[in-house]
Write a structure and sequence with these properties.
alpha/beta; Rossmann fold; seven-stranded parallel β-sheet; three-stranded antiparallel β-sheet; 12 helices; 16 strands; globular
C-alpha cells in the first residue's frame, strides 16, 4: 500500500502491551489519535493482580498467549501496524528457565509471523522490541595501543578472582568503553539474549521475504513508572527501588563501576512513534537509549536521593555468570533515520520514578533471586 493511501488513523496491535513499556506506548498512540488493541497473557510474575489499572480504558485488551494461533488470527483482524513487545524478560532467570524463554520469545515470534502470513493481513509495518543484550560486551578502545576492541564475555575464572575490567587481547591494556554501534559483532551470553536475537532476525527476514516494512529497535536499560516492582527479574532500577521502598540497601554486583545506558520510557515511546512514521527506518536495526553512560552504583544513589532515603548501596563484590562490564548506545543512526533525540535526563527521569514510587508497595524479592541464581551456580 503506497504511503499516500495509508490512513492517518491506524489500528495498532501491541503484543505484550499491558506491561510497563507497552502500556506507555499505548498511551502515546492514543494521544496521537490511533486505535490500540493489546494482546497480553497477564503472566502473574509481572501482573500479580490481573489486568493493570494503569491501562487506558480506550485500549482494547485481549487476554491471550502470543503462541496461540487462533488468538493471533483474531487480534490481527483489521490491524495496520504491529508492535511486537511480547517477551519473557530476565537474563539471569533465562539461564535456568530455558524452555520457557525460548518458547515465549522465539516460538511466540514464529507464531506471530505465521499468523500474519496465513491471514494475509496487509500490514503497513511491524516494529519489534529488540535488546542491547544482543551485543554482549559493548564496544571498547585499548588505552595503550589505541585499537578498537570487541572483547568476549569475561570468563567465570576471571570473575571469581574479582578482576572486573576487560583487557586488550593484543597488549593487555585496560579497555576503555566507547559508545556501541549497531554494526558491533554480537556476543550472545544468555538464553534471553539469544531469544531476543531470534526475535529480531526472524522479523527482519520475514520483512525482506514478504516485502513488509520492519524495524528492530534495540532498547537499552529502560526505566520509568509502572515497572513490575515485585518481579526480581525486571530492570535493575526497579529492583533497586523495591529494596529502597522496603528500607533495604540496593545490592550492587561487582564493584558498582559498570556502565550502562538508562533511558526513560518516555523517550522509548517517542522512538517507537517515530519508527512507525519514518520510512527511513524500514529494514533497519536501531539503537534506542539515552546515549550517556551512568554507573550502576550511581543509579542506586540517585534513586535513594530521589526517595529521600539515606541508604547507601551495598557493593557485594559478587558476580553473575555472563554479566557484561560496560555497554551504552551510539545514537548516530537513531538521530539520522528517526530524528530521535533523548529528552529526559537521568535526574528528571529518576525524580518522576521516585514520585510514583512514593505511592507504591513492593515485595522485595531480591534475596529470592540471589538464592535461585546461587542454586544453579550462576552467582558467587
Amino acid at each position: 500500500m503506497s504511503p499516500d493511501k495509508r490512513r492517518s488513523k491506524k489500528q495498532v496491535l501491541i503484543t505484550g502491551g499491558a506491561g510497563f513499556v507497552g502500556s506507555h506506548l499505548a498511551d502515546g498512540l492514543l494521544a496521537a489519535g490511533h486505535s490500540v488493541r493489546v494482546l497480553d497473557d497477564l503472566t502473574p510474575q509481572v501482573h500479580q493482580n490481573g489486568a493493570p489499572d494503569y491501562l487506558a480504558p480506550e485500549v482494547e485488551l485481549i487476554v491471550g498467549d502470543v503462541r496461540d494461533p487462533n488468538r493471533l488470527r483474531d487480534v490481527l483482524a483489521g490491524v495496520d501496524v504491529v508492535y511486537h513487545f511480547a517477551a519473557t524478560v530476565g537474563v539471569g532467570q533465562s539461564m535456568y528457565e530455558i524452555s520457557r524463554y525460548m518458547s515465549v520469545n522465539t516460538q511466540g515470534t514464529a507464531e506471530l509471523l505465521q499468523a500474519i502470513l496465513d491471514t494475509k493481513m496487509p500490514l503497513e509495518k511491524l516494529i519489534v522490541a529488540s535488546s542491547m543484550s544482543i551485543y554482549g560486551e559493548g564496544q571498547y578502545c585499548c588505552s595503550k595501543c589505541g585499537r578498537a576492541a570487541y572483547p568476549p564475555v569475561r570468563s567465570t575464572a576471571q570473575l571469581k578472582q574479582g578482576q572486573w575490567e576487560v583487557h586488550c587481547a593484543a597488549c593487555g591494556g585496560v579497555l576503555v568503553p566507547r559508545a556501541t554501534v549497531e554494526t558491533k559483532p554480537s556476543e550472545i551470553n544468555s538464553i534471553y539474549a539469544l531469544s531476543k536475537r531470534d526475535q529480531e532476525e526472524m522479523c527482519l527476514i520475514f520483512g525482506r521475504t514478504y516485502d513488509l516494512p520492519v524495524t528492530a529497535l534495540r532498547f537499552f536499560n529502560i526505566y520509568g513508572t509502572r515497572q513490575a516492582l515485585s518481579n526480581p527479574y525486571t530492570g535493575v532500577a526497579a529492583i533497586f527501588a523495591s529494596r529502597l521502598i522496603n528500607n533495604q540497601a540496593p545490592l550492587v554486583f561487582e564493584d558498582g563501576e559498570q556502565q550502562r545506558d538508562f533511558v526513560s520510557v518516555h523517550d522509548i515511546v517517542r522512538a517507537n512513534l517515530l519508527s512507525m512514521e519514518r520510512t527511513e527506518s524500514n529494514g533497519e536495526v536501531i539503537n534506542i537509549g539515552c546515549g550517556k553512560p551512568i554507573k550502576i552504583r550511581r543509579v542506586a544513589e540517585i534513586l535513594a536521593e530521589s526517595l529521600g532515603k539515606e541508604i547507601a548501596p551495598v557493593i557485594t563484590a559478587k558476580y553473575r555468570a555472563g554479566d557484561i562490564r560496560h555497554c551504552f548506545a551510539d545514537l548516530t543512526k537513531a538521530r539520522r533515520l528517526l530524528g530521535y533525540e533523548p529528552q529526559v535526563t537521568h535526574e528528571q527521569g529518576f525524580r518522576e520514578l521516585a514520585a510514583w514510587l512514593a505511592h507504591q508497595q513492593a515485595e522485595d524479592k531480591a534475596e529470592t533471586m540471589l538464592k535461585e541464581l546461587t542454586t544453579y551456580g550462576l552467582t558467587a
